[in-house]
Amino acid sequence: MGSAIAVTGASGQIGGRVARRLAEAGVAQRLIGRDPSRLPELTDAVQAPPAAYGDGEAMRRAFEGAGTALLVSAHEAADRVREHITAVDAAVAAGVERIVYISFQGAAPEATFTFARDHWHTEQHLRASGLRFTFLRDSFYLAALPAMTGADGVIRGPAGTGRVAAVAHDDIADVAAAVLLGEGHDGATYEVTGPEAITLGEAAEELSRFTGRVVTYEQESREQAYASRARYNAPDWEVAGWVTSYEAIATGEVGQVSSTVSRIAGHEPQSLREYLVRNPDSYRHITGQG
Fold first, then answer.
1. Residues 77, 13, 276, CA angle at the centre, nearest 5°?
2. Strands, DSSP E only, in the chain?
3. For 191-227, how does the pLDDT look when each residue is reduced to its tens digit (9 = 90+)?
4. What CATH code is carried by the domain that includes residue 30?
5. Residue 268: pLDDT above 90?
6. What are the residue boundaries of the NAD(P)-binding domain, all occurrences included (predicted)?
7. How far apart are CA 241 and CA 255, in angstroms?
8. Which pLDDT band, with edges at 50, 70 and 90, does 2 fall under?
9. Which residues contact 67 (CB under 8 A, 6 or more apart)?
10. Number of structural domains, the chain?
11. Could you tell me the residue range of the domain that residue 82 belongs to?
């Protein structure tokens, strides 16, 4: 078994945060990404050869020497499940024995949020792989709530009065690092959420307080949601993901609050208010300063 921890997506929002936490703990790492120039320079970290999830041989080389791996889900794509399967199989071929996978809250074969179905299929492949595994099913990111808000100060979508237990990237990374460094997590599935489940209307009220302007939530029907997003000329699968993300809020599939962050990371998760205090740039576009 290799002694290093492989971190995929090490140039991204979650992988990069986890890599920095592991570096602070003095752990040997292999940082994996498609573009080595974007990987962080960290103590005890080796930058693996460039690798994309869909390239099995490149991923096998990137995983070599690692006994444990953090598998951050790939960017949304029509063939994302195939990419994940290729990466998992490459990890097996390289001798990796344990994978911690960043999944999604409510992952299921019939999940309302279409991208959550990708996570379920990936989980099933990991279960069948023979690897030790842990699934971290995070809710939507807190960063998504201000990002959902247009420059006109309106959040639009078919979320109804449903609630979302949105979580900060930092809290997900804290949990992931603790699981990677700890024991007793094999076979576990952890829901990773913020401390509260809020409606988009409540999110709009909080954003109003921080931006100094009126932010509102405008409920759309499914038809209106598809029509309002048609101007982006995105592929059908991508638009479906955008629309169903709101519908998953409406159904309550992302509204369950867990204690995972406090139990495993050892601190309380950030609320939306705390996130906005720490990240004023996240709502700058609403104030007209972005």
1. 115
2. 4-8, 29-32, 45-47, 66-72, 98-104, 132-138, 154-157, 189-192, 216-219
3. 999 999 999 999 999 999 999 999 999 999 999 999 9
4. 3.40.50.720
5. yes
6. 9-180
7. 18
8. low
9. 1, 2, 3, 4, 5, 95, 96, 97, 98
10. 1
11. 4-139+168-192
